[in-house]
Amino acid sequence: MLRLLGLFALAGLLAAWSLPPDALAADTTRRPNIVVILGDDLGFSDMGSFGGEIRTPSLDALANEGVRFTNFYTNATCSPTRSTLLSGVDTHQNGLGNMDEWTAPNQRGVPGYEGYLNDRVATLPQLLRDVGYHTYMVGKWHLGKQPDQIPAARGFERDFSLLDGGGSYWDMTNITGAAPKSVFTEDGRYLTKLPKDYYATKTYTDKLIGFIDANRADGKPFFAYVAHQAPHDPFHLPKEWRKRHVGEYDQGWDAVRQARLKRQIDLGIMPAGTQLAERMWFIPDPITLAPAARALSGKKMELYAGMVENLDFHVGRLIDHLKKIGEYDNTIFIVFGDNGAEGTDLFQMIAGNPGARDFLFAAIKWSQTHPNAWGDPGSYVGYGPMWAQVSMTPFSQYKGWAAEGGIRNALIVSGPVVERPAGSINHGLMHVADIMPTLLEVAGARYPKQLNGRDLPPLIGKSWLPVLSGRAESPRTARDTLAWENFGNHALRQGDWKLRWQHKPFGTGDWELFDLANDPAERHDLAAKRADKLKALLALWDDYVRRHNVILPDRSMFETLDDTLPMRVPDDAGYPPLIYKRQFVAPEDLLADPKP
Predict the structure, then answer these.
(1) Is it the case that residue 25 has pLDDT exceeding 50?
(2) Could you report the per-residue pLDDT of 28-87, keeping only the tens digit for each?
(3) InterPro entries, per this entry (predicted)?
């Protein structure tokens, strides 16, 4: 009998999805709530359910009730990913063809490279709101600051948003001397100050819970975009969260990466036999460092782990509240990170050298440099490329690059649309652009052909509902393609094959070819051996460039790396033997004192 009732309920839900938007606007009680939780610079292997030692019970509970995806892609940096998430359109058309902060001279003034989410696209909250959803946003926006570009102007009914790309978690301190104050909005108004006892992750959660409660009585479903700032640097967090992993990371990054990969294989996240990507050539083997240096570096990772655990705690607060008000079982959760983990020293990049304006600004506003003050207001800590590679285990490289470590992310989906076994793992090829068509289908909304009399660009994603229902293993066939370009680094994937071009020295300055099924760590460039496959994928890349107006930048944030980093060399364990040779110990029976 219960099974029969369940079938009737499912049939009713499917019928609701098939209704036209005007009917759905009047019949909103059957449709699920939607919560998208975005971690800023959260790494592929950081959550416990993806192999991390970091304690994330709330996120892991969602994974254990839903499904984990191991072949999910975003873009290589934050605002391009956010623009694709909210528009379903390629970055080179939606306005984020390059990040606003790094727009190249040859991209200025070109449509698709405005540096903000342009007015030639429709947004997900706008379309959901049109069919009767409440639409809420908390957290980092990074898609424009003008009144017609902020969340309230792009479909969000309620918001509490940081408009900048980063900054303090404690106050309005921004990163550069030219823009010393972060900009926030609340419900479409620019804030003059922050709430009392503000701490970003906590306050975002408090605000969202308030938004949900304020409209509960009308029975309408809600869409909540929870764009957390955490765990983006600077690593700011309350004192009680800073010492949960004391000394744990003194063992160094190699050991932690190896342990994470073992857990990933045990969990089924990665197949048996998976190799780690090479430790990047400019990162030392941690066992060659002095104990104090290892401990100091380990403390940075301790802070990062605390940031992730604090994020998980506040996700848990939201989940507990939805359970308390009876909405949890009718809520879809989508959880992922916006790009690879951050391995670049942003603080050093921005502050520059003594005598620079931003160096002086940093000395004044970010002056708390003692390790005992790390995490406090006025401190600025990131964890560097060594720990970013740990966060991206087992992949190569990190944020900003077209290697797997820059664009592949952990994805969790749970809630009433998931009919796969609880806790299952899927290896289908997914993309952040898929979220728009998926959620429009869930809500019974349609993607319009025009907006304000102007033709809209087509959606580039595919609905996940066949995969979530268990009717398909991937939304894509082996012939479908995905492509990326950011800062001039670019790539294309078709099936298991990946074409990649990157600036030196992270790339070769030429095309590389990888078989990701057998080499997810991108260790073996097959371009010379498989000229046929290289040629075929290059034709697909050229087609992508034409269709999406891709303009490769004539300037890049990475343009000096080949001169400033040491020459790239292979990563061979134990080389050079000189620094690994331990003290020779003579046989005890042959020991003697010198003769008189």
Answers:
(1) no
(2) 457 999 999 999 999 999 999 999 999 999 999 999 999 999 999 999 999 999 999 999
(3) Alkaline_phosphatase_core_sf (IPR017850), Sulfatase (IPR050738), Sulfatase_CS (IPR024607), Sulfatase_N (IPR000917)
Sequence-distant (6+) residues with CB within 8 A of 280 are 385, 389, 397, 571
Q: 348 falls in which pLDDT band (50, 70, 90)?
A: confident
Task: Show the 3-state SS of 385-451.
Answer: HHHHHHHCCCCCCCCCCCCHHHHEEEEEEECCCCCCCCCEEECCCEEHHHHHHHHHHHHCCCCCCEE
Domains of the chain: 33-241+249-474 (3.40.720.10)
Tens-place pLDDT, residues 266-290: 999 999 999 999 999 999 999 999 9
Q: Give strand ranges (E) for 25-87.
A: 33-39, 67-73
pLDDT band at 571 (very low <50, low <70, confident <90, very high): confident
The residues that are catalytic are 78, 142
What was the pLDDT predicted at 22? 44
Distance CA 489, CA 502 (A): 5
Please tell me the distance from the alpha carbon of residue 31 to that of residue 479, in angstroms, as a whole number. Answer: 34
Q: How many residues does the chain have?
A: 596
Element containing residue 465 per DSSP (H, E): helix 465-468
474-to-426, 431, 466, 515, 539 alpha-carbon distances in Å:
8, 11, 8, 18, 24
**Do 76 and 401 form a contact (C-beta atoms < 8 A)?**
yes
Q: Report the alpha-carbon distance of residue 465 to residue 418 in Å, rounded.
A: 8
- Tokens 């009047």, residue located: 26
CA distance 347 to 168: 12
